[in-house]
Amino acid sequence: MVLLPNVPFADGDIVTPEVLNLAFNQVFDGQTQYLGHYPLIVNTQLSGATGQVKQVVDSITSPFLVTYVSALTVNVASGVVATDLGTVTSVATSNIVLPDNKTTYIYLNTSGVVTSADRLPTVCRALAKGVTSGGVVTTLTDLRSLTYRSIGIDPQSALVFGGQSVTDKVCTAGENLTNGLYYFRDFTVPSGVTVTVPGYANIKCSGKIVIDGTLTVTPIVPGGAALSPATTSQIYNARPGTGLGTYGGVYPWGLQPYGSGGQAGQFLSTGVVPTVFSSGSGGNGGGGLKLEAAQGITVTGTINARGGNAVTGALTSAATIVITGSAGGSGGCVIFTSKLGVTLSPTSTINVQGGNGSNGFQAGTTPGAGGGGGAGGVVVILCPTGLANTTGSTINLTGGTSGLASTTIAGTGYGAPVGAGFATAGGNASSSATTPIVAPSGTFILLADLPLG
User: Fold this and answer.
1) Cβ neighbour number for residue 147 with a 10 Å cutoff
2) What is the DSSP code (8-state) at residue 206?
3) How would you classify the pairing of strands 267-269 and 234-236?
4) Cα gap 336→297, rounded to integer Å
5) Distance between CA atoms of 200 and 197, rounded to whole angstroms?
6) To the nearest whole percent, how much of the chain has pLDDT over 90?
7) In this structure, how many other beta carbons lie within 10 angstroms of the beta carbon of residue 125?
8) CA separation for the pair 52, 337 (Å, rounded)
9) Kind of pairing, strands 361-363 and 314-315?
10) 179 three-class SS
11) CB proximity list for 106: less than 8 A, separation 6 or greater
């Protein structure tokens, strides 16, 4: 069995100046005329139970030392630790039996309890790594040493991302994530599995996020409700949808991290009102999804956060009437945040396309224009410089298409609403019975700044 490194010191070990410099953060070279330099260490200080250097070094290296006992058993020495709970805890010596044919990490959790697992939590005090094979511990690596200082995320960053959760979530087919806010260690959507988010979710993980299947955010930001007037010779203006961009306006994703609903179609009656009709409702705005993982995000599958299509109106009896198309909802918003990188693989698709507008129609001489398409949505990646990889991935920011006019309008006609906007303006209504108008595409944003230590 290999033990790395050999600490604490024992009589007979060679103590080099480099070791002393590391142990005491001082320079022992006898050059006392220089600031920060100290006399050379003499033999009496290095040996025996009362050796001054040995006492100090042992006091640093002995607590929580993990040593091999026999077979699969290791011993964790006692020690004192200050915990995240604001207490100082004395931990008694203990034995741990490691699982066979595995790599196991031994650590102090945030309550100061000696724990073992197949990997280290983001927030812990690492003690050792044990490798077992054939019923014995083959390698035991001391993780307390300066030699093995980890390169990882800041513990406070982990708390911001996923708290102290040790729960892994593996989604199943047809699952609905309805709570809006979730805390996990790891979150996984396996290949072939489709999971639905009704409108909005913020998934915060202290570990990793892996999307190999399909994660679909339904567009539930309401569009304008359909009109069904019951009087004659009257104009009924479009009912607005919900959100900051319902009239086609532009707004930042930080102010509203989801899309806006489109307006309903407008209605003009100049004679008899039909007994059954509807102007058609506006498309719902795309939802929002925030994925935050301290230890990295990987997507090989599909994330959908599209805007909703407008609903075409209905007319079942003759009248002198014009109904314009309704407007499409704007695309949604998908935000990725990680300290250790975001990878959108060549097989991945992130779809925040805007919703389509609906057609106008008429019963009489006045044509109705087609409703505008919703603007494309927003995709945001926040991670340190150089740790975002989107090469070959498909990020669909396309705006929705407008509906068609009941007949081509040459300078006159009853106008339809523009599509809902987001980071870009909503699409215009169409005056053509054959050629729709495509709304502006959305926005992809890559930021290297995170408000974390």
Assistant:
1) 12
2) S
3) antiparallel
4) 8
5) 6
6) 47
7) 18
8) 49
9) unpaired
10) coil
11) 66, 74, 76, 96, 114, 115, 116, 127, 128, 129, 130
The token duo for 188 is: 């996984």
Given pLDDT bands bounded at 50, 70 and 90, which one contains residue 383?
confident
Which residue type sits at 35?
L
408 Rama class: left (phi>0) / alpha (psi -120 to 50) / beta: beta
- pLDDT tens per residue across span 237-259: 678 899 999 999 999 998 999 99
Q: Looking at residue 438, what DSSP letter applies? A: B
The pLDDT score that the predictor gives to residue 313 is 77
The Cα–Cα gap between 357 and 312 comes to 8
Question: What is the edge-to-edge ordering of all strands in the sheet holding 73-76?
Answer: 66-70, 73-76, 94-97
* The one-letter amino acid at 112: G
Residue 3 CB-density burial (10 A; 0-12 exposed, 13-18 middle, 19+ buried): middle
Residue with tokens 């929580």: 64
Burial class (CB in 10 A: 0-12, 13-18, 19+), 453: exposed
Continuous segment of H or E residues that includes residue 79: strand 79-82
Give the residues across from 241 on adjacent strands.
none
Strand partners, 401: 438
Helices 17-24 and 52-61, axial angle in degrees (round to 10): 60
